[in-house]
User: Fold these one by one.
Assistant:
Number 1:
Amino acid sequence: MTDVRSLLRFDGELSAVDTRSTPGVKSRKKAEVALAEESAELVLLQGMDTCGKDGTVKHVVGQVNPAGLRITSFKQPTPAELKHHFLWRIRRALPGPGYLGIFNRSQYEDVLVVRIHDLAPWEGRYAEINRFEAKAGVTWIKCMLHISPDEQRERLLARLADPTKRWKFNEGDLTERKLWDDYQGAYQDALERCHTDAAPWYVIPADRKWYRNWAVQQLLLQTLRELDPQYPRRADLDIPALEQRLSA
Ligand code: AMP
Ligand code: MG
């Protein structure tokens, strides 16, 4: 089986990744996802507006038992959230054992949009994020959905043209689009500074939606397979004695 994780693992240079490439697959495929009992996985999705975070959530969720899911979308912090440390709301959203968490945006907004608009002191946050991720007790699958500015233009135009997509259109996205290069620089730094053994980054070429969906699903599948969930062992049970009691 293709090792998608090594193909997509961040290798130091975001701008070198072809957003239309499809590493590890030539056409669409299907697979199922089985959740581990004892572990907690967390798929974290980041990327520029229209990169497909919502679409990826829908696709991954479609493969998983909804009872085991914990999905969180991080928006602009509320006044209540702003009274706390930036990781407060993130920590509260971590999945417990046996759950699959999905973050639609994440702690990385606090070194992306916050850095671009200088909303708060952000320089020390990379190290804080690394310490937090190492101790969070989840297996991180951090995905950057990487699109090109041309693809974003097409998707924004499509939102305007189609009345069923128009509700997603947000004028603020045009302001952020003007800052494309600043964002790419902030992403490059975030990936570089927070690419750790405990929580590596994966860069998903995302101009093709079918590839993006396939790749995130494969990352999840391979992680689950590696965790190799085991039934509880119950070394406390004296099996022969219990069997004898049952046959008496
Ligand atoms: P959407 O994902 O389209 O619903 O938009 C959510 C918005 O919330 C985006 O513009 C994000 O940049 C913004 N956002 C998320 N987290 C933060 C944060 N920590 N600080 C400021 N803005 C944020
Ligand atoms: Mg949006």
Number 2:
Amino acid sequence: MVLMDRLGRPHDYLRLSLTERCNLACAYCHPVGGEQIVPEELTWDEILFAARVLVERAGVRKIRLTGGEPLVRRDLSGGLSRLGALRRELGFELALTTNGVHLSSWLPALERAGIRSLNVSVDSLNAQRFKAITRVDALPGVLEAVRQAEEAGLKVRLNMVVLRDMNLDEVDGAAAWALESGRHLRFIEYMPFGSNGWRSGRLVPYGELLARLQANHRLEALAADPHAVSMDYASPGKPGRIGFIASMTRSFCGGCNRLRITGRGRFRPCLFSKPGEEVDLRPSLAARDADAFLAAIQGSLDLKSPGHESPQDLATRMTRPMQAIGG
Ligand code: SAM
């Protein structure tokens, strides 16, 4: 069985939030007015059950751990090794999205669990600016952890959210750094989420960013797979790549294969789902009822829209904060 929505889109990629907690308070993400999240977490028994059912019975072939910040989950060590054992038994791909602050110390455990690819958020390559955006002085440690992960042979992609008044002035330098140092840096369009203070003027459309970068770099578009969210470019003679995740100005919903389970165990068919489209998986997880669990997910998937609303429309309704969804 493969999970399908009404449009016939097969869904075989799970983004699983381990916690809503985060150790950064990024200006564009953290709810305006401070901490509004009272974290609740699925137990590892529930997480392992969900992963097993989705892989064994619903054809999920890839699970990405995210959050909040997945590496601040308190009982991570034991859970990761159990997930690693399940991965070895069932053979799915395991990946992680992190802000990298605790990456260095977790790297050996991540490798033991079989994680071979990481997305690391780096919104500025300038230490002062990084601190101003995230409210934590952590850039050198994040870049060192990226280097260690690369040295260990992991595939690392760097993600940079671009805001006009925050870091647009850095994109040229960051692109040059990535292209020349052999890294893959993806620029993400700024999205509206509950209480993140979104304003259209802060969004830098990818077309504008691409034109700006093309003025200084020879960029050639690379072929993308049908589920890709990023449009990637190489520059002849340079080892790196840059990409654009243009969630707001270019729809890639047609190829969506993503399932999302939030930190507190709710299933969301889309990052921008409306409240009525979400379903609470905890009753079926607590009962270890695989049929009810899959039926709940299918019921929610049946409500999945062909695409999401415009950023202006999204900004007028309160979606959950990003850290309560799982990015
Ligand atoms: N803590 C991890 C991290 O920093 O990568 C995982 C969770 S975080 C919510 C996942 C990604 O979502 C990060 O790359 C972050 O920059 C991005 N993100 C958060 N809020 C966003 C927003 N309003 N617009 C665009 N990207 C956003």
